[in-house]
Amino acid sequence: GQSLEQPSEVTAVEGAIVQINCTYQTSGFYGLSWYQQHDGGAPTFLSYNALDGLEETGRFSSFLSRSDSYGYLLLQELQMKDSASYFCAVRDRDSGGYQKVTFGTGTKLQVIP
Amino acid sequence: GAGVSQTPSNKVTEKGKYVELRCDPISGHTALYWYRQSLGQGPEFLIYFQGTGAADDSGLPNDRFFAVRPEGSVSTLKIQRTERGDSAVYLCASSLTGTGLQELAIADTQYFGPGTRLTVL
Description:
The complex is a heterodimer.
Chain A: E1 3-5, E2 9-13, E3 18-25, E4 31-37, E5 44-49, E6 53-57, E7 60-65, E8 70-75, E9 84-93, E10 99-103, E11 107-112
Chain B: E1 5-7, E2 10-13, E3 19-24, E4 31-37, E5 44-50, E6 53-56, E7 65-68, E8 75-79, E9 88-95, E10 111-112, E11 116-120
């Protein structure tokens, strides 16, 4: 089956940079996504990596190393509104042959002044 | 345009009762997903529809859970004989084509609804 590991909590200072790591174990891996979820809100899509390397979207960047089964989300110039939970999600093929997306347990980011 | 909507936003029911949760996806999205999320956890996959058919229902925990999407748009998640352990936020998401059809190098971006908070007393 699939498993993903990410830190449960991270605290960082406003204006700083923070990196949220995600390691995964899965078969038939296709790509890694990141989602943001504010308390009481719905998850919203941030980024997707299918190939090794860094993808940049504004203040957010996401990195993938397929050989290391590892990825991270990098948030720069942190703002208070970035306080939220961040989920990595693998897209892979399960034992039944279906492509599906499996979410990690999430990292709660707290940005402090 | 309108996003994914879910009704009701909150549902309180008694153990043993039957509940229906509705999801209205983004117009034109062929793929629809149901997830369940407990406090402090990530979304847990339940079922995935491609059009009207359930492409993957391997996440449904047992036969008390059932979902339909008869016309390829609105979907209903049905839970029979509810148990206290069913209490969670039930999330629905839709995407343009779904993980089974999208090119692998392109994100299958899922757009989530606000969820239905189900409480079983």
